[in-house]
């Protein structure tokens, strides 16, 4: 198997990944998964597509992650892993789609509008 690459985005986080056959090692920005995401919940989120297909120990994943916060980054990485797994084996798409791992979450911060303090917030109304 050659190296398969994929891209995942969430909010302003971008994950570029390179998947190759290996022992299940996930390296993010030249650091180990547990070191980059100390939270076990975020580690679980990242590994969800791998665990669903029971291939967690089959592939090595090298990741370039930038932008956003840790939650957005973990979800961007989850999307990238799911897309790479579909590239490797297209039959897995239905399983991953049913779990919602293939769908890109397009929600992002709404821009601030002119003449307002925030995107939708108005200044306090004063009758007098």
Overall structural domain count: 1
Secondary-structure-derived class: alpha+beta
Order of helices and strands: EEEEHHEHH
Give the overall form: elongated
Strand content: 15-25%
Which CATH architecture is right?
2-Layer Sandwich
At the fold tier of CATH, the topology name is Ribosomal Protein S5, domain 2
Strand order in the sheet with the most strands: 1-2-5-3-4
C-alpha Rg (nearest Å): 18 Å
> For the terminal residues, how far apart are their CA atoms?
73 Å
Mean pLDDT: 94
Q: How much helicity do the residues have?
A: 25-40%
Low-confidence stretches: none
CATH class reads: Alpha Beta
| Overall strand count | 5
The total of helices stands at 4
Main sheet characteristics: 5 strands, mixed
Written account of the structure:
- By secondary structure, the protein is α+β, with helices and mostly antiparallel strands.
- It is built from four helices and five strands.
- Strands 1-2-5-3-4 form a five-stranded mixed sheet.
- α2 runs parallel beside α3 (70-88).
- The longest helix has 19 residues, at 70-88.
- The relative contact order is 0.21.
- The model has no long low-confidence stretch (mean pLDDT 94).
């Amino acid at each position: 198997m050659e190296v398969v690459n994929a891209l995942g985005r969430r909010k302003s986080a971008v994950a570029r990944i390179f998947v190759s056959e290996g022992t299940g090692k996930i390296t993010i920005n030249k650091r180990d998964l547990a070191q980059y995401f100390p939270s076990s919940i975020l580690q679980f989120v990242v590994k969800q597509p791998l665990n669903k297909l029971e291939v967690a120990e089959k592939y090595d994943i090298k990741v370039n992650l930038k932008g956003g916060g840790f939650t957005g980054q973990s979800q961007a990485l989850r999307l990238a892993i799911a897309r790479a797994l579909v590239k490797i084996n297209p039959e897995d798409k239905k399983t991953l789609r049913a779990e919602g791992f293939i769908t890109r979450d397009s929600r992002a911060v709404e821009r601030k509008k002119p003449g307002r303090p925030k995107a939708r917030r108005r200044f306090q109304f004063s009758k007098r």
